[in-house]
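Person: Show me a sequence?

Helper:
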Amino acid sequence: MKKGIVALIVSAAVCATTFMPPANAEAAGMSVGASTWYSEWEFESQDGSTINSEWSPMYGPVVGIDFAKDWSVTTVFLTGNYKFEPSGIPMSINYRRYDSDTTLNYSIFKWLKVFGGLKYMRYDARDSGVVPPFGSADFKHYTYGPGLGLGFTLPLYESLFALANISVMRLHGKTTDNNMADTYCIETGYNAAVSLAYYIDSMSTTLSLGWRHQYFESNDRNTEGGNSKLTFSGVTLAAVYNFSLGSEE
């Protein structure tokens, strides 16, 4: 439990660089804002059967700090509720999901950056009703671990930019079920995101609109058989305010 809390505090978006502005990093600066990811969750079980959730929004804060010349740290934390309605079952299943990344970014060129950091994913469920943020749940699943990726920035016209990011992850964690013994798992997968970003100079604010796709496989180390496959795809939207923490050199 303590490890999960530490990871949550330290973590938060291998997609974080998607939401951060393509700004000049000559001066130290900070960025704060909000982001949302309106997506669908597809779950494929080990026997090959699939089920899809209703489209739902995840939402949360964005924070970034530029320092030195080409270095920055970015954090995104998202949470939202997903609802499943399995056929043949006269009830819905609600999950509260968390997706959090903290990344250290280094700009090799103006158009290319590398980033790595910690990722934390979690989803909770209970027998009935929507699970509130950080509320009680009968079922909890969480994983955390490293991620590594590349980010690309393409100037299009004046303050309009195209952004693309791709990253991979390998996570460890466990599932806690009130009706069963704890199980441990390994999850591997990737994130891919593309977006258009527009910087409003008079407001020192960057607006971005794009698409994010996340895929990972969850391998239960306590049982034999194939992996469960989880896919999240949908539209991203973010607004980030940027301000200087000091003068340019």
The chain is about 5% helix and 65% strand. The mean pLDDT is 86. The longest helix spans residues 2-10.
